[in-house]
Amino acid sequence: MAASCRVAVCGATGAVGNQMIQCLEERDFPVSEIRLLASERSRGRSLKFKGQEVPVQVIGKGSFEGMDIALFSAGGGTSKQWAPQAWAEGAVVVDNSSAWRMDPQVPLVVPECNPEDIARYKNKGIIANPNCSTIQMVVVLKPLHLAAGLKRVVVTTFQAVSGTGQKAIFELQNQLKAIHEGNQPENKVYPHQIALNLFPHIGPFTDNGYTEEEMKMVNETRKILHEDGILVSATCSRVPVYYSHSEALNLAFERKLTAKEARDILAKAPLVKVVDEPATNQYPTPLMAAHQDYTLVGRIREDISQANGIDLWLVADNIRKGAATNAVQIAEILLRDYL
Amino acid sequence: MAASCRVAVCGATGAVGNQMIQCLEERDFPVSEIRLLASERSRGRSLKFKGQEVPVQVIGKGSFEGMDIALFSAGGGTSKQWAPQAWAEGAVVVDNSSAWRMDPQVPLVVPECNPEDIARYKNKGIIANPNCSTIQMVVVLKPLHLAAGLKRVVVTTFQAVSGTGQKAIFELQNQLKAIHEGNQPENKVYPHQIALNLFPHIGPFTDNGYTEEEMKMVNETRKILHEDGILVSATCSRVPVYYSHSEALNLAFERKLTAKEARDILAKAPLVKVVDEPATNQYPTPLMAAHQDYTLVGRIREDISQANGIDLWLVADNIRKGAATNAVQIAEILLRDYL
Predict the structure, then answer these.
(1) Starting at the edge strand that comes first in sequence, how are the strands of the sheet with B272-274 ordered?
(2) ipTM attached to this prediction
(3) Do residue B309 and residue A233 have CB atoms under 8 angstroms apart?
(4) Which domains are seen in chain A, by residue range?
(5) Distance, in angstroms, between B203 CA and closest chain A CA?
(6) Residue contact A158–B259, C-beta within 8 A
(7) What three-state secondary structure class fits A79?
(8) Is the pTM of this model over 0.95?
(9) B294/B319 Cα distance (integer angstroms)
(10) Tens-digit pLDDT profile for residues B260-308
(11) ∠ CA B327-B332-B337, rounded to 5°
């Protein structure tokens, strides 16, 4: 294990990049040097790390020289272009974009599910961080799958605007302000008003009628769980919430699981917290899940519509466990076991 | 067919009662006399009907004398107590509460699905109006069921606060105002903040872990479609939207339906409008569905996780088609065919 590590954060000024910097600090990641990278747009900005102002550099050739790990969260285009360069310059990339996730050479990792896959990082020098909606789902699915054999998932998501980035947070704020002041809200980021509204559209539509976001939940789940036979159908929707994605899951297993067994299994699962006391109105909500790293799970019940079925409801902070925290956890294992 | 009709509206001052009065007016229901009834709390109030101020009367013995039809939307307790009295005094009751819905003697009617059941109104003089979430779902399920044989439904709802009544609309307004002004929002109606939040809890919890709202979607669907074998699992959630419930449906049929076939069938279904043009971001949203009577349906696609499966998304105004309009439609058939 390396005692400390030089870390680049690429896309440092975005919502997830910012949270990555905060996670490195909070989790006491042994950073000997930090380099903050962003696009031309952020030239001249600086960000705080451990009380120090760190200037943001514009990404370019040589940006990753001398770095051990590069955390990327700057969109698929930037990752496609710069991740191979980062590896060539000596930094292992942990990439939060969707650019490399389904590349068979690239491991796609949730530390609670498949930390062993990190070993394959040398193929391309890239480890992919899954999609936010997938991460929080698989931390709950994995232990249940081990216990009873997961066959099929029907999932409906309620996704926070922060998943789209800082600009969507502003859009919801501005729309609520306009409504409060009796003005017509404007939409620039989304095709429809999001304040006091919602819509079943996240990411581009694909030929089969599902969106790319929905197909990520299918394909990434299979890759992370190493089970190509698991069937998944997803409907992903955007809701007027700032932080935390909620998901309603309907699950089919090979073997019977009682609600109590499922609850007991999840109570022991890493980074999962069971919040399931209907009698006192305790079940996960976005406000409850925001700004921490647990995936909260509740409404655990035996499905009355199929044999060996379980229904449940889960919520996690999409910017933390759904993105930044998961990436920093991967970096921790990389540093501890491989660098 | 009676040429005109004396109508009592019981619970006239509530969100649904108000909408019932508006629907009677809009649809030119041939009202020869209207009587507005409410509880002691509304004593002294009056409401407009066709430009005239109509005083609200406190419900009591004799309230229904001389009335032909009584539209009830005053909660289960009031319906339990007063619906039999209304019938004894000569008025046929169309009841929007859950009090009589599962009574085998009482027809539960959605005019697009089972208008013939109205014939059984004489058993108790009561016709039940289904739950809002169920009505909008069955107008879409019925024509698909006729075409391909519905076997199983997994539904997740996104329900507007108006479903809880006028007080919940105020609660969401007040919470948004408090947040805008930098104050702590208060919750009195719901156990959790609803502004910028959501929760999987509508109605009391039952012993099997589902809520009463969720079980209504199971039991009422079977009763309306006359199919006790249809399997349903529901997760019902409250979202920060004023009007219109959204629902994500995952459906299993006996026979294969292509997405195109499902779309064609729904395009011809009464009171259903297909809004399904992903390429131009056209799919149903709550803002789009509010203040009209159509159930909007989109995101129609073949389920990639099961044979003979269809996924879709539907939205309707819960106060109109989900409550008041459906009740007035029942009254129209009652008047036309039976009185």
Answers:
(1) B231-238, B150-159, B245-253, B309-316, B295-302, B272-274
(2) 0.96
(3) yes
(4) 5-130+323-337 (3.40.50.720), 133-318 (3.30.360.10)
(5) 11
(6) no
(7) helix
(8) yes
(9) 12
(10) 999 999 999 999 999 999 999 999 999 999 999 999 999 999 999 999 9
(11) 130
